[in-house]
Design a protein that fits this description.
alpha/beta; Cytidine Deaminase, domain 2; Rossmann fold; 5 domains; 7-stranded parallel sheet; 26 strands
């Protein structure tokens, strides 16, 4: 311990002293910023606590900052928790000070660190890794250089060296993951600066972890640490697990068996990760033991040392490369946007360089995470988690808190106060919770009754968008009144419980179980507070910057009801919370362009604001940052490997779940069967409608089985399970919708055909799609050509991309939607694909052409797999496929209705 001179400036000390006094002398957590001499010259308050503890939000700091908190007593000796937190902060280059309330003395746990001087990457050295005579060539047998991969790596290197945004469309087979992993690891190791790699699908994560990173380790000269980062709700909370073990009577009997199995696992697992469980618990059971930021005692938890989240955070804090998914990354970004600082709500440590793979999904992901949803299930879950009375037993976090208050060690007058608070809790439970429960059921019953009068779609879903016109209708005014009653009842209940919690905290009870129970209750109150705020916004905020709607999904047994809210546009949010936050951002995918340009992608995600030609801001040059967009071709020979088959006598645009006949020509069922016969299965059949998929599956299952084809249907199992079966079973046929159009990878002869039943236009009446289209049209745009078609083209390219995944793959993509050759916009779909053989005409005539194409490749494939026949196989593979040119598309001036 020493004086503050040389550690904290007089101005900063005055600020710290004032904030501590304003907090009543309780603990306050600050983030200090230093000058060139390592002296704290400014600070900001990040958290205020009690007389004995405060939240340590070290993730908000940058390298060189100082985490500062005060000890209200005269003793500045660090606790074990202080040492642990400071050690974790030091991994991110953050120093730690403890001060007294007068800010006259300081205990320096970790000295301030000077930010390292960043060293640019040596492009020549790294590109040499990919040369035939370099480390990659030595590590891989029969290695061939890929010019596009080297070009991409050069661009990624430049983005790191010059703080650029790079947008890279890299065709299938480019080797894009290795092209960005090598520079990312090199930068992280050289400059001690973390890099985040985020993907949209688990499939790509697993490829990076189990295929690409092991390869990079073989050829990389320096050691590095890469960690998969998951959301904290994947981990068990030991405090909650021990609480259930000690007080099983406070939890429902229905869950006892599952909870018992969970506890047995929780007390023996080394990771605490739900992925390590040998069974999948029900959601409501896992919720009772899962870790959440709101219920975490952090350094004051009795299980802090063994904490699985703490272990995961320490692993992440000491890693150079963090692998995660868009959902977790954008959850982190949304929390940061709301709070203004990095938060303990996620386990991602501070990072400054980001790689966003599968970036074509960014607008959809951002829309989801910058929006909000309130459902009947969510409200009931929050209320039941607080209090539930069933089978003569009272359970829930309020009952746990009441029980812990009764049991805590309190004497004399304090004992009487504690007992009085427990009694007040029981009173609130008896009066307020039934009122909120009644009001919630009233709201969601009313929503279900009103919305269900509309015609549901084929999946049984009704979406009722709250347009200005509908807000004036009697129906909405009635619902609005119901919702605001629920908002008022919820806020009254939350206020009543919060006042009791505040009174308990004033007693400063040194009881860890009471402290944990208080946090649990506050977390559940937080859910209700958030729900009430969303309902209030939906009712009273009619800003055109948000889309609000009511939704009901009807099944045979239950109606799911929710109130939804989403941003109309995410461009500004992306600029403010992503592009302005990270010096290096690389966005890549195989499908970022539409009509050969990045205009659509850049406008939708906000990058267009950095392009002078798109910007309305006269000062754009002052704020613009370097953005580089490039398209890299696939190394695969699509002209030889793939054919696109377009029957002219099928009118799939009008097929739906009610009828698979267009009134003339082949039925969809007959067309699919004919095409499947060509390949004897080994096919994906991609639908845009789950209702049509189910109808076709019912109609064709027996027929396909009689032909020796095993039908796999989306919904009959998990995606990974279905893919595993598809790869292993001969002559399999997989019927899939949205999740099988992208992010799935089947290499080899298991997949020889992809049948696209219909051009993948989004449903025009989906609330967000409809609102965005209306906005574009209202601002002198053409929503069909500027929004609807580009969305569909990118999805179409994703579906096409399922076929060819390696240089030896071959097959056909059949498109059963005549609009692709008859409508003026059809050429935009076809021109978006790699150049390949096209077969267009009546289906019966195409069968022979497609069969000949596939037979030729099947023979070549067999030759390549025969020892000693490599040259013959190669020669056979080079033979040109039979094809005929596509007819010229007919012009049309129709717009949105063409997507029907």
């Amino acid at each position: 311990m020493s004086g503050i001179e040389g550690h904290i400036s007089a101005d900063a000390a005055s600020l710290l002293r004032g904030e501590i006094a304003a907090a009543g002398g309780r603990e306050v957590f600050f983030l200090g910023h230093v000058n060139e001499d390592g002296v704290v010259v400014s600070a900001e308050v990040l958290a205020r606590g009690t007389d004995v503890s405060v939240a340590a939000i070290t993730q908000a700091g940058a390298y060189g900052d100082v985490a500062i908190h005060n000890h209200p007593g005269a003793v500045l000796e660090p606790s074990e928790a202080d040492v642990t937190v400071s050690s974790l902060a030091a991994c991110s280059g953050i120093a730690s000070f403890i001060i007294n309330n007068d800010v006259t003395a300081v205990y320096v746990l970790v000295e301030p660190m000077k930010p390292p001087q960043l060293k640019p990457l040596d492009a020549g050295e790294l590109l040499g890794v990919l040369s035939a005579g370099g480390p990659m060539g030595k590590a891989l047998q029969n290695y061939e250089e890929r010019p596009a991969q080297k070009e991409m790596m050069a661009e990624v290197i430049d983005s790191f060296n010059h703080d650029k945004i790079a947008v890279i469309e890299a065709g299938t087979g480019t080797g894009k993951t290795v092209a960005y992993l090598i520079p990312s690891i090199a930068w992280a190791v050289t400059n001690d600066e973390r890099v985040v790699v985020s993907t949209h699908t688990i499939n790509l994560q697993e490829q990076i972890l189990h295929k690409d990173l092991p390869l990079v380790r073989k050829i990389f000269m320096a050691d590095f640490k890469a960690v998969l980062v998951k959301g904290r709700n994947n981990y068990v909370c030991l405090r909650k697990a021990h609480l259930i073990e000690e007080d099983p009577e406070l939890f429902e009997d229905d869950d006892a068996a599952e909870l018992h199995a969970l506890l047995a696992w929780a007390f023996t697992t080394k990771t605490g990760d739900i992925a390590d469980l040998n069974f999948m618990p029900r959601h409501r059971v896992w919720e009772k033991v899962q870790s959440t930021p709101e219920t975490c005692l952090r350094a004051h938890c009795p299980y802090f040392r063994e904490c699985f989240i703490g272990l995961a955070r320490r692993e992440a804090a000491t890693a150079q490369l963090l692998i995660t998914n868009h959902a977790l990354l954008f959850s982190d970004i949304a929390i940061h946007a709301e709070n203004g600082v990095f938060s303990d709500s996620t386990i991602l440590p501070k990072y400054r360089r980001v790689i966003l793979d599968e970036a074509h999904n960014l607008e959809e992901v951002a829309t989801r995470h910058f929006g909000a949803s309130v459902s009947r299930h969510g409200y009931n879950r929050a209320l039941n988690t607080l209090y539930r009375h069933a089978r003569g037993r009272e359970t829930g976090s309020l009952m746990v808190l009441a029980a812990q208050l009764v049991r805590c060690e309190a004497r004399g007058a304090e004992r009487g106060q504690v007992d009085a608070m427990a009694a007040r809790l029981n009173e609130v439970v008896m009066v307020s919770i039934p009122a909120v429960q009644f009001s919630a059921n009233d709201v969601f019953d009313a929503v279900a009754a009103e919305v269900a009068r509309a015609r549901p779609d084929e999946a049984g879903t009704v979406q009722y968008r709250l347009t200005p016109e509908r807000r004036a209708e009697d129906m909405w005014l009635r619902l609005q009144e119901h919702m605001m009653r629920l908002v008022a009842a919820t806020r009254l209940f939350v206020k009543g419980v919060a006042e009791i919690i505040a009174d308990v905290r004033k007693l400063a009870l040194e009881d860890e179980k009471v402290a944990g129970a208080l946090l649990d209750v506050e977390a559940h109150l937080g859910w209700l507070t958030s729900y009430a705020a969303t309902l209030d916004a939906v009712c009273n905020d009619d800003s055109d910057q948000f889309v609000n709607w009511l939704e009901a999904r009807v099944t045979d047994t239950v109606t799911y009801v929710s109130v939804e809210r989403a941003p109309l546009d995410v461009a500004d949010a992306m600029v403010q919370n992503v592009f302005e936050q990270y010096p290096t951002i690389v966005m890549t995918s195989a499908t970022l362009t539409s009509r050969k340009t990045f205009d659509f992608f850049e406008k939708r995600c906000g990058l267009a604001q950095y392009r002078e030609s798109f910007s309305k801001d006269p000062d754009v040059k002052k704020k613009a940052r370097p953005v580089r967009a490039m398209v890299l071709p696939t190394p695969f020979d699509f002209k030889r490997q793939a054919a696109i088959v377009i029957p002219t006598d099928i009118d799939a645009a009008h097929f739906d779940a009610k009828s698979t006949m267009a009134g003339h020509g082949h039925s969809l069922r007959d067309a699919v069967r004919t095409l499947l016969d060509i390949t004897n299965g080994s096919a994906f059949v991609l639908f845009t409608s789950y209702g049509l998929l189910r109808k076709m599956a019912r109609e064709m299952e027996d027929d396909l089985a009689a032909r020796g084809m095993n039908l796999l249907v989306q919904g009959s199992g998990g995606r990974d399970e279905l893919l595993k079966r598809f790869r292993s079973e001969s002559h399999a046929v997989l019927f899939g919708t949205d999740s099988f159009w992208a992010g799935v990878d089947v290499v080899g002869e298991a997949l020889q055909s992809v049948i696209i039943t219909k051009l993948p236009f989004r449903v025009p009446t989906e609330p967000v799609i409809e609102a965005r289209a209306e906005y574009i049209d209202a601002h002198n745009g053409n929503s069909f050509t500027e929004y609807t078609i580009p969305l569909a083209v990118i999805k179409f390219r994703q579906g096409f991309g399922r076929l060819i995944r390696s240089a030896s793959d071959y097959g056909m993509v059949a498109v059963l939607d005549r609009r692709v050759i008859e409508k003026y916009y059809g050429k935009w779909f076809l021109q978006s694909l790699p150049e390949c053989a096209q077969m267009v005409g009546p289906l019966d005539e195409l069968v022979a052409q497609a069969s000949a194409f596939l037979t030729q490749h099947r023979e070549a494939y067999a030759l390549r797999r025969t020892p000693g026949a490599k040259a013959a196989g190669h020669a056979a593979a080079q033979a040109p496929p039979p094809a005929q040119p596509a007819p010229r598309p007919r012009a049309s001036r129709r717009r949105a209705k063409d997507a029907g």
